[in-house]
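Job type: complex structure
Entries:
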Amino acid sequence: MRQFLNNMANIEMKSCSLCPRECRIDRTKKLGLCGESNDMRIAKIMLHRFEEPCISGTDPKRGSGAVFFSGCPLHCVYCQNKDISGGGVGKLYSPTDLANAMRELEEQGAYNINLVTPTHFTNGIKEALDIYRPRIPIVFNTSGYEKAETVRGLSGYADIFLTDMKYGTAETASKYSKAPDYPHVAVTAIKEMVNVTGSPRFFSDNMMKKGVIVRHLVLPGCRRDSEKALRLLADTVGCENVILSLMSQFTPDFAKDIKELSRRVTSFEYNYVRDCALELGFSGFGQDRQSAKADYTPDFHGKDNN
Ligand code: SF4
């Protein structure tokens, strides 16, 4: 009987169902839909100065300690990081290597460790954090396409979730990410993220200590879908439990083959979605639509978020 249970445990461990794609394959032998084996691959490690102000800060010598993982389970047609998410770029890192990289970022003055697209390497990341736990906050920076149980398993590891809420309808989620279940899956996961981190909290210098930031990128021709996404988020998770980051930086260069995405978002579209967010009661960040660097404008609500 014991032997039988051990075998069952091995099957469970090898069959990957970390994310809602639920490939249920052995990633030691085959690549999942995320494009990755079990071995952690990292495309870039850097101090990142262009995340939200409470993540990147304003000191030009510091920034968010970003670790960009290779691969992605979602594969949006307009992805700005296609080389990293699906292009096979990156070097293999053991959990010890990642632990050392996090320590180096901390020594360089990073405000936090920002794990970008981490879901498919959740196990290796947890192992790395068991080896070395930085004294700065750990940020899980995700597409929002997460299983609630995977998020729950990050309790004690994640201080901050920087998550997307991309779509409000199955139609748009299916068209651009082949994930018709995205709206429901994402709000369920975000609710769990709030359970893990609690409400937003800040250090005395306004840098984020704990909580959830929800990013929403306005897409061309999709303002009504954006409205539905924000309404679903407000109804399911509650405006007061998250900080909203409303983004305008959609770049048509990355979706050249898709006619309706071959332009930038207009001011009318962005302002329409911003007004919906304000009406629903969200607080957070807006983005300068004209900025080539996609800089953030702190606090579109005109309120202090502390
Ligand atoms: S993490 Fe990768 S292999 Fe695992 S279920 Fe998701 S897409 Fe499939």
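Summary: The longest helix spans residues 182-197. The chain has one domain: 2-297.
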